[in-house]
Structure formats: C-alpha cells, structure tokens
Amino acid sequence: MLRGFEPDPSILRVGRDYYIATSTFEWYPGVRLHHSRDLANWQPVGGALRTLEQLDLRGVPDSGGIWAPGLSHADGLFYLVYTVVDHYAEGWKDLANYVVTAPSIEGPWSEPAYLHGRGWDPSLFHDGDGDGRSWLLNMIYDWRPDRPGFAGIEIQEYDRQARTLLGEPRKIFAGTEAGVTEGPTLYRRDGWYYLVVAEGGTGVEHQVTVARSAELFGPYQPDPGGSALTAKRDPTLPFQKAGHGSLVQTPAGEWYMAHLLARPYWQAGVGRSILGRETAIQPVEWSADGWPRVPGAVPRAEVPVAEAAVTEIAVTEAEPEGGPGAVSSAPDFAADWSTLRRPASPDWIRTGHEVLIRGGQSPAGRRAPSLLAHRVTSLQCSLSARVAFEPGSPDDLAGIAAYYNTRNWHYSYVTAGDDGTPQIAALSRVAGKLTVHTGRKNVERGERVALSAELDGAILRFEPLGIEVDATTLSDEHADEFADGVVRTYGFTGAMLGLWVIDLSGSGGVACFDRVCYRALNLTTAHAKPSV
Question: CA–CA separation, 415 vs 386, rounded Å?
C-alpha cells in the first residue's frame, strides 16, 4: 500500500509497468506519482507539477489545491487531468480542471490546458475498443442551496490533438441513494461500458459503486449486488473509509482495484486518522453475470514485514544518524518530500551537504511559507535534525514541526529571547487556538542544536524539551470544521513532519539543517481496533 497522505488513487498499466497518481492538495510537487512492476512494491516517482507555471497554489485554502487526479495513456503519451480548488467553503466552489501530457511518467509534463470549472474529480476515457475517441468525465457540482450539490456524473468529448473539449457535456449517471456521487472512471469490457464512482462521502460511509451500460451515454444501471467495496458496515475493520476506486487489468487478465482508505487510531471509541487517507489495492473478481466485485466487498488487510524505512536528505560526511541502511535521496528530494503552497526554488531553499531554508510567512500565511515536510507513514515514526540558526529576535524561528494545516500544528524551534539569547521553545495551534508551551532551554550562540519530533500512537514528543502533545489533533477528523452545518475547513490531507522556518520581521534569516532523518517503524495495518 501507499502509506500516509496518499488519497484518491488513479491506477494505470502501460505494458509491464503500473502507475498510480494521488492527490496533493496544498502541497508541491502537485500530483504524486508512483511506479510498480508487481502491484505490491511501489516506488515514488515524484510529483508531476513542479513549477508555478504548471500549478499556482498561492492562497489556496487548507485542503484546497489539487483534488483527485486522473492518469491515462494514449498515442504514446501520458495524460493527467486534475482539479485545482481555490475555494470551497460556505456553499461555494471556485475551481478549474486542467490537462497536462508527457512522453514519460518522469516528464517533462506540458503546460496545463484549461478544460472547465463545472465540477471536480476528472478522468479521461480513451475508447480504444470503439472509435478511438477520448472522453472527459467528472462529477457535476450544483451550487444552488435548494438542489443537491452532488448532481451526478457528466461526460464530454475531448480532442487529444487540439487539447480541448468538443460539443456539450451530457449527464450520464445521477448516482444511487448513497449520494455524494463523484470520482468517476470508465472502462469497456465485453461490449459493456463500466462506470466506477465513489459515493457516500470520503468518510466512514464511503463506498465504490459500479454501474454499466451497453451505450456510452447510458442509461447506466448500478450493480444489483450493491457496492463493490465499502467498510461502512463493519467498524471493527482495520481499514475504514474504503472508496474512490479505479481498476486495472494485468497482462495475465487479472483485475485489481486501487482505492483509498484510512487506518484510524482508536481512542475512547473514536477513530482519528493521523495518517490521513492512504491507498491500497484489492483483487477484483468478475461475477457470472459480468460485474466486477471485490470478494466480500470489504477491504482486506495486509501485514507487511515490520522493518524500518529510512529517508535521509542531507548527505553527511559521517555516518548518518539513521545508521547502516539509511538511504540518501536526490538533492531535489522530489520523491519523498513536499513543500507547502510554493514550489521549491533556490530563492528560499537549497539542498546538498546541508539543507538551507530562508524564513517565510507566519503559520497563518498562505502564499509563501517555508516548510519542507515528509508524510507521516506510521504511527511510530520520527524526524530528527540539527539546526544552525542565528535568530535576531523572537520574530525569527527555525525548527521541526508536526503539521496538518494552518489551524492544527505543533512546533519546536530555535528563537531568541527578549535579551537576544538563543533558546529552544515550543508552540502549538489546535483548532485555531495558539498555545505557548512552558519550559524553554537556552543554547549557545552558533551551536548546532539537535531537535526531534517522535510520534508514538496518540503521543507526539519533542526533544530536547521533553514536551508531549496530543497527536490526534493532526487527524482528518479533527481538522474538519463546520459552522451551522456548512463547511469551514476540510481535513483531506494527513499529518506531516517537517523543517519549518518563520520570518515575522522580514530580516531574511536562513536556517541550516543537517543530519535530517525521517524514520518510520512498525509498519502494521491495524491500530487498536475497537471491539463491538
């Protein structure tokens, strides 16, 4: 599986190679890509959208930005369609859908071509068994308060040569009584068109629904056997929120479904998804009457080998703190690390023997923060680093953060006291409320300060201060905020551990990090399941 914040998978096979694209929301690079030869072992390729010209996330809300990409292949090119959400609260949606292409999954990816702004979760269907034409599918959003916001699935022809839409969109599916119909993908097999959609919302009621039609434009009839995959009927399953599926066929003719899920940490009967929504793969069997179904219609749990997975980004002369087996990433850290709301560029971040980060906006800033982060992939993990920093005032901060969004994070950092003495301090923001932790530690000016954040289930511990905080505040469920039944903030991402430098005075200070090591342990699939 793809562990940590890796939702909305779109799976594709080209020859012997399998690829998955996942949502990235407010993080760069936009749209994470993964490669496998066996559907079991996946390697990150990095992100497709790396520049401001391809993707501008400045100012997007928490859990805005890139929603649900669709990956496909035709005419020797990879096609990637995706939604960029600029606003989603208070009943309104400001969004746009785009398409980019590349001759290789590694790129280079083209400049984006605009498609439309009527809804989200786009995908392309190339009718290779038919007339060879291509079709764009997406959910339809209706903003009117007296109408259902999720208004069904539409289809419109896409001209691959002109990179534009043709004709008018046609609604082909209204959805089932489960509601919240989105995430469409289309397949053709044995004379039938199969429409796979997500329904029930991306929470505990989530499910995969399959409908089919003999004609491209419908009518599409749902599988009479019910949902193809869901966890909503059994809260004891280690995998919850199963939905948003897409299908792939192996060269041997076997079928599989990639789908999102959550592995909640259960505390006092409440599940908190600190890891965010992740990606798993299930086998698919075709019924005698031609319906694709996951056996049992529930997600199966896997138990991988419990060994450490280490990522090192600063190449040190001495052996890295991760010890033997630590892996050094490429200097651009594109495969495993992400930056918040702005792409990595030399004007604010540089990597190599050390990682240099120039301070950015405040934690509430949504245009130019300076945060480099790694997805939390296990409930037992840590991030450690040494930082050399010369704070001129309390307005200069550099350290290690455990981050969910602008309203939920924890931060241990080097700053200056009122008298200019460098010191280590800690700060938290939970549901928008700022808390300064007691206990500071003075350090010598010019000293390289060792910092770490260690996650152990629901406890997050910062060293060397020894401060412990509630890690469940970095979960999807905690991040969701509603006012009078209307969404204020979605929790669609997942917890991140990262290097954060804040410059509140515009002094231009730069922090130097070395021995940066993310370590994940105990890669299990279940976390204290509730008993019923």
Answer: 14
Q: Which H or E element spans position 164?
A: strand 164-173
Nearest to 472 by CA among 330, 376, 369: 376
From 6, 26, 182, 503, active-site residue: 182
> Distance of alpha carbon 102 from its chain centroid, rounded?
22
**CA 394, CA 420: separation in Å to the nearest integer?**
8
Residues 6+ apart with CB under 8 A from 259: 9, 208, 229, 242, 243, 244, 245, 246, 279, 280, 281, 282, 299
Q: What is the pLDDT of residue 233?
A: 85
Q: Give the span between the Cα atoms of 87 and 63, in whole angstroms.
A: 10
Q: Given 3-state DSSP classes, what are the helix, strand and coil percentages for the chain, each rounded to the nearest 5?
A: 0, 50, 50
321, 517 contact by CB (below 8 A): yes
Please provide residue 133's backbone torsions phi and psi, each rounded to the nearest 5 degrees: -75, 160
Query: pTM here?
Result: 0.92
- In angstroms, the CA 501 to CA 403 distance is 13
Catalytic, out of 8, 199, 278, 321: 8
User: What's phi and psi for 477, nearest 5 deg?
Assistant: -65, -40
Residues of 213-222 as b/e, b for ≥16 C-beta within 10 angstroms? Answer: beebebebeb
Instruction: Note the pLDDT of residue 204.
Output: 95
Q: Where are the beta strands (DSSP E) in 190-250?
A: 192-199, 207-213, 221-222, 229-230, 240-249
Residues of the chain with pLDDT under 50: 303-310, 314-332, 525-532
**How far is CA 498 from each of CA 161, 225, 327, 411, rounded to the nearest angstrom?**
42, 45, 17, 10
182 given a catalytic annotation: yes
8 a catalytic residue: yes
Residue partners of 365: CB distance under 8 A and separation at least 6: none
pLDDT the model gives residue 319:
35
The pLDDT value recorded for residue 334 is 57
437 CB burial (10 A radius; 0-12, 13-18, 19+): middle
3-state SS record for 365-401: CCCCCCEEEEECCCCEEEEEEEEECCCCCCCEEEEEE
- Give the phi and the psi of residue 182 in degrees, each rounded to 5: -155, -170
Report how far apart, in Å, the C-alpha atoms of 529 and of each of 270, 272, 441, 501, 524 are. 10, 12, 39, 37, 12
| Cα dihedral across residues 422, 384, 23, 46: positive or negative | positive
Positive/negative CA dihedral, 107, 110, 114, 115: negative
